[in-house]
């Protein structure tokens, strides 16, 4: 709701003015909300940096928060909430809801109908005043600009940003899992969509790099272990790949697969079998080299656009863990085969996995 309301007008500009001022110069302005942060961004020509910063500052510092816009936006968010039930995000929401028991990360970003109904404008304003303070924010500028000039423009645009403390999420202790769990959402679809995964570690944990290698070996594309076994050899999936997410204090590693309902058990057994093989035998030198090469190439492509680089450094900057390209490559290149096998033994636990599926039940 806050992300939406920031774009519904300020003390000086209407919503059309906000978008029009940037789009008239060939740029874009937008925002998105994740489970840990809200991000606003602009993409403009270098000469339009003063305009971009002034508009971002206006949105962040002087939102109007009118009651009429708030009520209208409730209907928009309600539509998004209902629409999300028809998207792939419903599978991830179901998976994370069952993966964690205490962490607020288990809650969907869109919230609930009841929560949307009960929230008042004063609740939103209070949350804004608490969170949109200098100590809890980061500004990233990436592009063909000089540092001193960019710093001066930023200081001028945001000099009225209220002071306030950083509000980092605290670590949480999840109860240990000792049995697999699952959840299914019945849908009248011809295919079943599933996620099978385990909780892992946060951004600063040393096991993060070995887990990335495991993710790539299992499912970095058509050459990954699971695609070769489930698609090429057995022919029981339409699609399969490995997915992961790393938050500040925790994360997960999961396998995403799309199959016919009658093949779900076969797919699940094959995934667990590959997990067991890595635990027992590790990975080959060829797989290790391919995974490291894939990571380097994929990361290089992510560094191709200014918006991607700003996003990478923005997230890492919030956590004081900015990692330039060369350091990220060195971190992954430092992983050894034995470290991968140890990480598999530690995290790919058949007694603690979670499986979520959406589609027809078999």
Short recap of the structure:
The protein is of the alpha+beta class and 362 residues long.
What percent of residues adopt helix (DSSP H or I)? 40-55%
Average pLDDT confidence is: 93
Under CATH, the homologous superfamily of the largest domain reads: Metalloenzyme, LuxS/M16 peptidase-like
Strand fraction equals 5-15%
Give a verbal description of the structure.
By secondary structure, this protein is α+β, with helices and mostly antiparallel strands. The chain has two domains: 2-157, Metalloenzyme, LuxS/M16 peptidase-like (Cytochrome Bc1 Complex, Chain A, domain 1); 181-359, Cytochrome Bc1 Complex, Chain A, domain 1 (2-Layer Sandwich). Helices cover 48% and strands 14% of the residues. The chain has 15 helices and seven strands. It has helices spanning 2-6, 15-23, 49-61, 67-84, 89-99, 113-118, 121-131, 147-157, 208-219, 225-233, 264-281, 285-302, 306-318, 325-333, 337-347; strands spanning 28-33, 38-43, 181-186, 192-199, 239-246, 251-259, 354-359. The strands form two sheets. A five-stranded mixed β-sheet has the order 3-7-4-6-5, with helices on both faces. A two-stranded antiparallel sheet has the order 1-2. The protein is globular. The two termini are 38 Å apart.
